[in-house]
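In the current project phase, our protein records have gained a structure token line. A sample record follows, to show the layout:
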Amino acid sequence: MTRLGKRLRQAWPPTLLILRGESPLASPEVRPGSAEQPDRSSVTGLTSHRVLTALARESVAPAKRADERAGGKSTRCHATRSQAGPWSRSRRVVIKGEVSAQGGNPRVGVTDMADARPQVLYQHLDWARGHAAKESQDHQRSLQSARTSWHRFEAKQVRVWLHSAASGFLETLRREVFKTTPWAAATMETSQLRFRTLGARVPACTDRIKIS
């Protein structure tokens, strides 16, 4: 990340770089190289522990009361400061409390962005990262893009490129064609099963099998 940060800084000097990731990126081994600089910030997940669980429970409580009144999914975000064992100082911790018919779904993250609103951090940074991760998983799982069982690098590269082209086609189909239909949020797997799979009628005759 240090080498990549230098290259990005050479290409875009005035740009703020924001590191997003899962909880391992909140470790002291990573953070000094990314967050301790004025031109870089970070928003990462955080592994919950006893103190954070109690704070998350406090965040879920008002969401639960709102859910009981409205009868739908409710989300509340707030920020506090906490100092985990390995950290040299306290850091800003953002807690999202969400309650739906399936129950509570608290999430915890840590950031060095002191002025950003918790709701903005969750919706536009942390949630966006999770959405991108789901799309990557959808690319690998639904399109089987991880199946590059060939010994030549060029063959693997072409195969991944073809999978990415299929992914772009399905995403365009979902965004442009299905945008006013219930399929606007369909996964790539659902899009393939519903709209790419061909149906056929197979009548068996005495001397042959016909496929209509």
